[in-house]
Amino acid sequence: MNLFSISNIILSLSSLFFGLIVYHSNKENPLIKYWLMFAWCFSFWSLGLFGVTYYTNYSTAFFWQYVLDFFAVFLPSTYVIFLIKFFKFKNKFWMPAIYISSAFFAIFSFTPYFKTGISIQNGLYWIVPGKYYLLFIAYFMIYAIVSIWILLFQLIKNRHDPLLRGQIRNIMIASLFGYGGGSTNFLPYLFKSFPYGNYFVIFFLVFMVYGVLKYKILNTKVISAQIFSISIILISLFNFLRAIDIQDQLINLFTLVLISFFSYFLIRSVNGEVKAKDQIQTLADNLTKSNDKLEDANVHLKELDQKKSEFMSLATHQLRAPLTAMRGYYSMIQEGTFGKINNPEIEDVINKISRSTTDLTMIVEDYLNISRIEQGKMQYNFNTLDIADIVNDVVKEVSPTVRHAGLTLNLTYDNTKKYMVSVDQGKIKQVVFNIIDNSIKYTPKGSITVSIKKTTNKKVLISVKDTGVGIKSGVIPQLFQKFTRAPDASETNILGTGLGLYVADQILKAHHGGAWAESEGQGKGSQFYIELNLSE
To answer: Does the pLDDT at position 128 exceed 80?
Structure first.
């Protein structure tokens, strides 16, 4: 086998494999389909040139001449189509003109006007041109000029885009090698000289491969391993075809098979890695989109939450005035301002109204405080005072409710000591009231014991112990969360909102204090703790 034939079979396989690799790497890209169309024409043109120059039988070589000429017609036209699609030309005149001219010369290549046969020149078969063969040469050169003009025009047009200029420059170099080397195949007809330039056509593929890898010309995925593997296989094939004796042929054949075997597994492994990366990228893209949507939804929810807080603040402010008036009037009734109540039934009704109004006032106050906390508008006026005085006031305030519920309330502390703390008096009074009131609500019978004592770590601890319904161990960590109640809490108190303990906890945190609860279980009572820092 002669060197010229070997170079063409290598060129044919290189173009074929390169086109398939690029196509397989990104089938969704429409541009790659046009590149594959050109790569197939290039491959069959090289295969036809191989057949003509390899076979010594006239009829066989002449058959391959028909193959060569047919694909030589489509070679420059499909390349121009690729460039048009690459640069996204919008002029619709280009495509019909290319299709018509290609179809005309494809049919023309089978006529005697194109060629009359083949003859041996320089030791190889070459075409015997027909009367109008020069038309095909003109056709080929026009497309070559058009290709170079497109590339020059785009190079100037995109002078401010470094990446695109690099792509265009690389394609232009490849085009000069391709057209320059390919056009030397006309030399045996024009000047009876050997087409040495055809050896340089391989550099067209070399620069296109380089452009794909460096400049991402075809926007392909990772194909370095595939191209490397195919290159090694082609080199091994070249060595096999060039082998002189049977021993060299066997060694080179074994090497070729071995390299092909390992290349297959290498390519398969890389493809698997690429697919895995694609899946990860897809998930990442979907996650990014989801995050964007979640972020938009989160912004919207924050706006709604702000409006909700503003509404709660406005509504609770409006409710406080009539509730304050109601509490004032029933207090005056209980104190006999409007006359003594002689009817026990009326007194019982008034006590119930008093209790219900107190509960509703606490609920409104809790909602108002939550609104302030969420909007960051909760204000504190800190003063140093004795926490025992605040606890005493709360115990006196709730005593009528405790007696009416049939419970006993005990307060124990060392009245010879001072329990000085720096607090907002009104806010801490509300905390103590919420904790004690919570015990009253969930203690159907028995007693409630409130105690105050100092601890060794310079803190004061207020405990509220009751003999009520108790708390399940799994519920305790959630008690101080917003809108959280024990699952069976409504069986004892249907008016609870799950806000009192949350508000108490938030106020205590602002005082650098804390609250927690303990219980041995259902039916065994509960014990709530309030802890504050001593100021002296």
So the answer is: yes
Rounded to whole angstroms, how far apart are CA atoms 229 and 19? 14
- Is 3.30.300.130 the CATH classification of the domain at 380-533? no
Question: Helices marked H in 453-499 — which ranges?
Answer: none
Alpha-carbon dihedral 493, 498, 499, 502, rounded to 10 degrees: 120
Q: Are 229 and 266 spatial neighbours (Cβ–Cβ below 8 Å)?
A: yes
Please state, in angstroms and rounded to a whole number, the distance separating the CA atoms of residues 57 and 54: 9
Q: Which CATH number fits domain 3-220: 1.10.287.3510, 1.10.3380.30, 1.10.10.10, 1.20.1070.10?
A: 1.20.1070.10
* Domain layout of the chain by residue ranges: 3-220, 380-533
Distances, alpha carbon 2 to alpha carbons 48, 63, 203, 242, 336, in Å: 15, 19, 20, 8, 128
Contacts of 34 (CB under 8 A, 6+ apart): 78, 81, 82, 85
Model pLDDT for residues 503-523, shown as the tens digit of each residue: 888 889 889 999 999 988 888
Alpha-helical runs (H) found in 219-245: 224-242
Burial class (CB in 10 A: 0-12, 13-18, 19+), 492: middle
Return the percentage of the chain with pLDDT > 90, whole number. 30
pLDDT tens for 213-259 read: 665 666 555 455 555 555 555 555 655 565 566 765 676 566 656 65
Which tokens go with 269? 């492994």
Q: What three-state secondary structure class fits 17? A: helix
